[in-house]
Predict the 3D structure of the following.
Amino acid sequence: MRLFKLVPDNTNFRFVRLRWIAFTFTLVLTLASLGLVGARGLNLGVDFVGGLMIEARFEQPPQLDRVRSQINALGVGEARLQQFGRPDVLSIRLPLPDSQEDGAANAVVSQVQGAVTQAYPGTTFPRTETVSGRVSDELVRDGVLAVILAIIGIALFS
């Protein structure tokens, strides 16, 4: 009695003959990725570049251009806005203030919250983060070191 076999004996898959196509495809994608990173740069978060991140929750989805122009009119730096999950939640990112005073970042946050609340009453701010430039430099250095060590580890064990 012959048993059922999923893969018959003497089966020969010739996938190795496609290796040059796969190598070429991988090389093209790698070069395209490096080119995009070089041209556009990385979209790093507040953790890596330092700055302020304010999460704003609106009652209705806001007009991004209007919110951006009101924040930029305060003179606290160029605001970068991004919808955060739902259309009525925005992530507002700002650079750290130039002033070295202790309360400078809190003053900027208060200014931004006041301007946004004035234009959109009922807006809440569930989260605010401040990351200094020194902390962000340490994170970048540690991240690069981790990637280098991972590459060395993979090279040693493969």
Notes: The longest helix spans residues 133-157.
